[in-house]
Amino acid sequence: MTSFLSKSFGLLVFWLNFGNPVHFTVSVGSTPSSGTIIAPDLNYLSHCAINQIEAAWGQDEISKEDKMKNKNFIFSIALFLSIFIILFSCGKQKAKWQGTIEVVDGMTVVKNPKEPMYGEDVFILEEELSIGEAEGREEYMFSQIRHITISEDERIFVLDSKEDHIKAFDKEGKYLKTIGTPGQGPGELDRPSSICISQSELVVLEGARRFSVFSLEGEFLRHISTKETWALRASMDSVGNIVLTEGVMDPEYFHYMAKKVDVNMNLLYEIAKTPAPDARTGVNPFMPFAYWQIDEDDNIVFGYPKDYEIQILNPEGTIIKKIKREYDPVEVTEQEEKEQSEDSPPQIKYIFPKYHSAYYRFFLDDEGRIFVQTWEKIEGEEIYYHDIFDSDGKYVVKVPLRMRPIICKKNKLYTIEEDEEGYQYIKDTKSPGKSDLTYLTQKPRSQVV
Fold first, then answer.
1. CB 3.0-4.6 Å disulfide test: which of 5, 81, 281, 375 passes with 356?
2. What is the distance of C-alpha 283 from the center of its chain?
């Protein structure tokens, strides 16, 4: 039963951590009804999480042996151009938005139709640089990129969870330094899972139990303990408060609690409580998981994709906006069920739904746009459509993105990409049956917003 729940929690970890596995310290005992809390096999948990990540990101063609042996991730940065400028430059007239906006008790509710404002997939990216080498200079080699963050002066910080360190590059892609070494002491990193920048400091979440804080120049400053909180995912806002998702192993109700706390882990407010996988009742591998990000104004953008709705909470925790969209649910295919069942312990009881959740996850840019990754994809390819909402919450356009986007800042889309060899280059691409999705090799003359 331990491995049974471990498998489902491996799936869970992916959803909460952008595909970044963390190790767990609790699990359910061997008797389904007992609710006993015991320590699991951490190596097995990590193994399960990596399997789920590979399947979810379409990376299962790459063997785990290759991942262990090769340092060959390519980190790519593409210039993101304003959709509106692109449309105007193509001689298109601005379409009329068909949704509604109303204010109810001080909260703005934006209701979007099924179709976006623009009916064509029009999106232009230009490769600006790539960082990463399969062979050559050690400074430009990665084992397992887990997260990226960008400073105001556009320095690039890349977290390599397998190497337990962070590499810093300038905005031109030149290597600057390596921050952290493996270990548990001051300045050392133990199973790091995510990074962010707060108050001009680099904050690293480690093993769900502590943060390490460095200066942007790489000097270790302090540790912050999560105390009794099991922080599966966490980030810090601009004033040092922490938004996190906690795993709660209540025998009556396994769940996640998204909440905001101060630096001493004192509760400021709860955001939402949502279900966690429970081996005692069967595991839905496609169950919706709550997701959130912090925007440039310290608002929390939160979504639980049981329905197509995204909420925006102000820093004090009040919901100030809801963004909704009508949608057609995407069916779970027989192939997806088969892939989930393969290599699973026989005691796992899967409960497959007919449909996927309303969406998968989302990321933000610093202009207030929201990019929502849906379950809709180009037939025969692992290229998923993203719904893009403007800063008002209007559904503007949907675009297929081949790469794995991480962060969008100053009109630059930072992505992690791999091919069958472990790395991938941006090139001209045409989406089957759709309008061209072009990755330009020369910067357009259009104004960049």
1. 375
2. 22
Whether the Cβ atoms of residue 194 and residue 234 lie closer than 8 Å to each other: yes
Structure-block tokens of residue 334: 């027989």
- Please state, rounded to an integer, the average pLDDT across all residues of the chain: 76
Q: What's this model's pTM, rounded to 2 decimal places?
A: 0.79
Q: How far is CA 199 from CA 152, 193, 210, 239, in A?
A: 11, 20, 18, 7
Q: Which residue has the tokens 């790469």?
A: 403
Residue 198, pLDDT above cutoff 80: yes
> What distance in Å separates the CA atoms of residue 419 and residue 429, rounded to the nearest whole number?
15
Q: Are strands 201-206 and 165-169 parallel, antiparallel or unpaired?
A: unpaired
E-assigned strands of 70-189? 74-80, 100-104, 107-112, 124-131, 145-150, 156-160, 165-169, 175-179, 181-182, 188-189
- Please, which pLDDT band fits residue 406 given cuts at 50, 70 and 90? confident
Closest CA to 142 of 74, 61, 58: 74
Burial-class residue 110 by CB neighbours within 10 Å (0-12, 13-18, 19+): buried
Residue (of 230, 233, 226, 199) closest to 212 by Cα position:
226
User: Which of these, 121, 142, 135, lies nearest to 76 by C-alpha position?
Assistant: 142
Cross-strand bridge partners of residue 405: 415
SS3 content of the chain, % helix, strand, coil (to 5): 10, 40, 45
Most confident option among 129-143, 325-339, 343-357: 325-339
Strand partners, 430: 436
**Are 158 and 181 in contact, with CB atoms under 8 Å apart?**
no
Residue 349 pLDDT level (bands cut at 50, 70, 90) = confident
